Amino acid sequence: MASLHFCSECNNLLYPKADPGRRIMVYACRICNEEEIGENKCVYRNDLLTVTKEQVGVTTDLGMDPTLAHSNITCPHCGHDDAVFYQDQSKRKETRMILFFVCTKCNHSFTDPSLPQDNRPDT
């Protein structure tokens, strides 16, 4: 795992540098020219995020939010026919236009039941 290294002489940051004469990587100080041989060959680590399906976010008291639009969709939990809806707010390219509904009576979160089962996000 890549980590920060500091100079033992002046406590400044050491930067990775190739030593072509010895054909090794060293960590060098840009202030006092101190060098130490790099034991770990990793100088950069790129962690890729895994792509996940859309998930219902925090929905506490969304049914009482006056700024959200209402829909006549029936709640699968209690059968009430009034729900507020919102779109997933994640900023990924893969995000589809999926609406999440919250029942105004029981606060149950759900997606449009007319969506095919394999296209529904995790709720």
Describe the structure concisely for a colleague.
It holds the Pfam family Zn_ribbon_RPB9. A zinc finger (C4-type) spans 7-32. The protein is built from no helices and eight strands.
Describe the structure.
With 123 residues, the protein is mostly beta strands. It has two domains: 1-45, N-terminal domain of TfIIb, CATH 2.20.25; 62-119, N-terminal domain of TfIIb, CATH 2.20.25.10. The relative contact order is 0.16. Helices cover 0% and strands 28% of the residues. The protein has no helices and eight strands. Strands 1-2-3-4 form a four-stranded antiparallel beta sheet, with no helix packed on it.
- Named CATH architecture of the largest domain: Single Sheet
The geometry reads as rod-shaped
Count of individual helical segments: 0
Main pleated sheet: 4 strands, antiparallel
Can you tell me the CATH topology of the largest domain?
N-terminal domain of TfIIb
How are strands sequenced across the largest beta sheet? 1-2-3-4
Portion in helices = under 10%
Strand residue percentage? 25-35%
- What's the structural domain tally? 2
Termini distance?
Answer: 35 Å
**Order of H and E elements:** EEEEEEEE
Number of strands: 8
How are the elements arranged and paired?
Elements: E1 5-6, E2 13-19, E3 24-29, E4 35-37, E5 69-71, E6 83-87, E7 99-103, E8 109-111
Antiparallel strand pairs: 1-2, 2-3, 3-4, 5-6, 6-7, 7-8
GO biological process, one term: transcription initiation at RNA polymerase II promoter
Binding site for Zn(2+) 1: 7, 10, 29, 32
Zinc finger (C4-type): 7-32
